[in-house]
Amino acid sequence: MARSIWSGYINFGLVSVPVGMYSATEEHELDFHQFQKGTSDRIRYKRVNERTGREVPFEKIVKGHDVGGGEYVIVDPEELEDIAPGKSRSLEISTFVDLDEIDPIHFQKSYYLGPSDKENASSYALMRDALAKTNRAGIAKFVMRGKEYLATIRADGKVLVLETMFFADEIRDPAKEVGNLPAKSGATKQLSMAVNLIEAMSGEWKPSDYKDTYTERVQKLVDTKRKGKEVVFTEEEPEATTSTDLVTALRASVEAARSRRGSTTKKSTAKKTAKKSTTKKSTAKKTTTKKASTRKKAA
């Protein structure tokens, strides 16, 4: 069992549920060090005083905030600790909202919450089941590693999941970031065909169907170069579909998607039929065996 990275209490109303927090995700990543090209010399970073050129120990470093005009306000780490929210051990739920009302853009990182002791596991189970039954999520704030977080607490099967969230003022305005966005599409025929394509390509969400192919390529590159060989990946860059080719591309895409879906359905049906046939044969054998044994007893 992994060690919890935070422990405290979920508080809602007068109820307190002791929990521990655990990492729910891990990223695919290959570690690389930096070297000077053509050598085996490692590149390392040092904290250096730009005026003297001397290395500065970590405990003698303070922070400075740029206030413009080349001026900085210097702040000591101790001063930041004094104004920090504190080492709170409370997940204070202020309200419960419908999960479907939360825009996914607010979600930041997922953590598992587990009961921190067996004696109070019943209160954990009660909260989990109540959230699942109502399709609600608790909105809470808590402090971890000197920082205050906004979070949702929701049920997922047998476990409670905490999602850290971005505050509203941390979400950027798409109009300012992206610029000119097209108005509502007025092409009825193309829209209808696009909807048909989406329907034809729709299916069940199966996370295990999706793999990190880039990390696999990087691993293959490393392994191949280790053997003294060279790997060349060739991949054509897609071209934008012009407005004149849009209808043709949509029609061809719909037909291809329906064809793939049809072949998948046939395979699935064939498997189910074969399974049923095997089950029937097995049942028939069992019945025959029983009848045969009954006849022997009668004889």
Automatic annotation (TrEMBL):
Residues 253-299 are annotated as: Disordered. Coiled coil: none annotated. The keyword DNA repair applies. It comes from the Bacteria. The keyword Transmembrane helix does not apply. Residues 259-299 have a biased composition (Basic residues). GO terms for biological process: DNA recombination; double-strand break repair via nonhomologous end joining. Keywords: DNA damage, DNA recombination, DNA repair, DNA-binding. InterPro entries: DNA_bd_Ku70/Ku80, Prok_Ku, SPOC-like_C_dom_sf. GO terms for molecular function: double-stranded DNA binding. Residues 53-183 form the Ku domain. Belongs to the prokaryotic Ku family. Homodimer. Interacts with LigD. With LigD forms a non-homologous end joining (NHEJ) DNA repair enzyme, which repairs dsDNA breaks with reduced fidelity. Binds linear dsDNA with 5'- and 3'- overhangs but not closed circular dsDNA nor ssDNA. Recruits and stimulates the ligase activity of LigD. This is Non-homologous end joining protein Ku. It comes from Kribbella antiqua. The lineage of its organism: Bacteria, Bacillati, Actinomycetota, Actinomycetes, Propionibacteriales. The gene is ku.
